[in-house]
C-alpha cells in the first residue's frame, strides 16, 4: 500500500486548515493546543504499573483488530459522511482506557487508533480534521477522568462495584459523550456558515451508537480488570455491533445527497417505483414534479459557486416546507430537483407546484459573494417546473420521469418561471408532450439582481 500521496509536501500557505473561516480556525487551533497541553501536564508526574501496561497492550491490540476487521465499512462511511458528526466505535476502546489507564496511555491509545486508520482505513483526507477529532477524544477523556476522580474513583481500575460507583461511571460516560459531541458540532457550525443547526447535529438516533459503545466499554473495562481472558470473546459482539449499527447508518447516508440532504436519484427512483406499484393496486395517483432553477448559472458566474450552493439550499428549504411528510424530494442533478407526491391528482400537483414557485419568487435569499466576502440578498429565485401524473402521463418510473422532464423543458421554452403539465397519454408507451397551464404563470421571469448589500 503506497502512502506517498499522503506524504506529499504541501506548502503551509496552501493547507486547507487556513481556508477555514477565522472563528473556525481559532477554534480548531485552540482545541488542538489545549489537547497538547493537557497531555504534557498529565505526563509530568505519572507512574505506570506493570498491570496498566498489560491493560494498555490488550486494549491497543483489540482496538487495532477491531479497526482492521471493520475497515471496509469505515472506508465507505468515511467517503459518505460530510458535514455531520461522524459516529464511530473508537470511543469503545478509548473509554475503556479511561477506566483502566492513566491519561497519557489513553492519549497513546487515541494516537494509535488514528494512526492505524491513517494507514489502513482513510483514503485521501484532510489532516486538520483528523487531528481535531483526536484532540476532542483527548479532551473528552480528560473531562471524564475528572468526573471519576471527583466521584471518589481515584485509582484504577475505576469500574463499577456498587450502585454509587455505577452512577459515577455512567456520569463519566455521559460527560465523555457530551464534550466530544458538542465540540464536533461546534466545529461544523463554525466551519460551514451555511450549515443549519439541524444538519450539524446529525441524526440524533445515531448517537445511540456512541451510547452503545460507551456502555460496552464499561463492560469491557470491568471484565479486563477481573477476567481479562474473557475480553477476546467480546470481539465478536463488537464486530456485530459495528456491522449492524454502522453499516445501516452508511447505507442511510448513501441514500442522501451530501450537499442538500435530499434523497439521491437512485433511492428516489426506487421510492417512485414502490409508490407506482401501490397506486396500481389501489387505483390511485402518483404525482411527479421536476423543477429547475432559472438562470442558475448566472448566480454561479456572478457570485461564485458557494453562492449558488446557498441559493440551492434556499430552494430546498422551501420545497421541504411545502410538501407533506409522505412526499419525497431528491436532488436530480445540478440545480434540478425531483419530488414524488403519492395520491396526488393533476390539480393538486399543480397547486403544490405553484405554491412552491410563488414562495420562492417572493422569498429574499442571502448569499455570500465569493470574491468580496460580502453578504448580498437576491429578491427571489425563479424556477421552472414540469408535472406528470400516474397513470395519465406514464405507467412506470421511466415514462413518468420522462414526461415530467419533457414538461419541464416545455416550461423553459415557454419563457421560464412557470409550470407545465404533461399531456395525458393513451397508453404511456411514448413520452407525452406538455401543455402550459396558463393559470400557473401569474409572474414573469425576471433577471436575478442584487437587492441590497448587508455588511459581512
TrEMBL record:
TM region positions: 20-41, 93-119, 131-152, 164-192, 204-223
Protein origin, superkingdom: Bacteria
Keyword Cell membrane set for record: no
Record domain GGDEF: where: 284-424
Alphabetical keyword list: Membrane, Transmembrane, Transmembrane helix
InterPro entries: Diguanylate_Cyclase, GGDEF_dom, Nucleotide_cyclase, Rev_trsase/Diguanyl_cyclase
UniProt signal peptide: none
UniProt-listed NCBIfam families: GGDEF (TIGR00254)
Protein name: Response regulator PleD
